[in-house]
Amino acid sequence: MLASMIIRYTRRLHLHTFYLCSLTHSTVAAFAPNASTQTSTALNAESDGRREFISKAALAAAAFAAPAAANAVVDYENIQYLGGSNIVDVNNANIRAYLKMPGMYPSVAGKIVSHGPYSGVGDLYKIDNLTPREAEVIKKYEARLTAKTPSPDYVIDRINNGLYR
Question: Rounded mean pLDDT of 50-79?
Answer without folding.
Answer: 71
